Amino acid sequence: MNAQKLIKENNRKREMLTAENEAYYGDLLIYIRLQFSLSEQQSEEVLMELLEHLLEGQKAGKTAKDIFGDDPRGFADELIEHLPKEEKRKLIPFIGGIIGDIVGWLLIIRGGLFLVLSQFTEVDTKVHPLSALLIALMIAGFVIITIVYVFKLVERSLFREKRNTRKDTIKAGFAGAAGMAAVLLITKFLPEMGPSFEFSWWASFLVGGILLGLIYLGKKRKAA
Amino acid sequence: MMSIRSQLLKGILDGCVLAVIEKEPVYGYELSQKLLNIGLAEVSEGTIYPILLRLQKNGLIRGEMRPSESGPNRKYYFLTEAGQEALENITGEWKQISKPVNQLLMGRREG
């Protein structure tokens, strides 16, 4: 049984929890899933065991606190300490897939945009690979920083009686907007460097489409 | 450094869990119920999961998802060869220590 199936089963079974138990278990689940360096398969297996145990206990009138103790963070940290790390060869396709997805969609949007624009005006379809790479790295850096920041916000909000969700949402939104503004500003003032080549709208469309198609096939094969 | 007290407890708990699994493969909740029935209520609930993970990591047991009689897939734990060896060791150590400790503690004068 692979991790994807376990996640689906987990979603289904979690609905049987009482509100109190769901609050406790839900936080535990997010906290453990946020540890991206851990083996996904092993994490999902232990999460399923805990859920089964909790459901059995619930039948006997026990709460999550009775079963897992009143220090959920400490309990989760103990589990995390003993969970094996994800193998590197599984991380590479995961991260590669995300990058490929973004690049693929960017190329398709660029193709579509240039097709529409070229109806009305002259469009510069030259691409400077060096400049493009610099901008891509910058965007990647910004995206990673934002994701890490949002994860930290989520992690801090877990296992608390009272939550200030709205304040966190504003913080996350502000971080995203500020990063985006910085990227746009730098892009605007970055001189075009290095060699360039023509990259027409249809070539952009084609390459983006092929890229997304390959990723889709890869995912389908993994799920099977 | 871990205190001697918690090290000792850890070893004993490991031994108990390994001994239950040796009898027959069990899944998490089943293991907790068996420990509870033996009288080890302290380790019968959530505390077994970090122990199970640690024993797996050290290669003393291995887990396998299997369909159970009542339907859902469950992770059953099996003793490995290394686990068998570890259990022998723990049992041997326990034999050495339990007799004198028993004599000492149970032989105290009442009052």
UniProtKB/TrEMBL annotation, chain A:
Pfam families: DUF1129. Keywords: Membrane, Transmembrane, Transmembrane helix. InterPro entries: DUF1129. Coiled coil: none annotated. Gene3D superfamilies: c-terminal domain of poly(a) binding protein (1.10.1900.10). SUPFAM superfamilies: BH3980-like. The chain crosses the membrane at residues 91-117, 129-151, 172-189, 201-218. It comes from the Bacteria. PANTHER family: MEMBRANE PROTEIN, MEMBRANE PROTEIN-RELATED. This is Integral membrane protein. It comes from Mesobacillus campisalis.
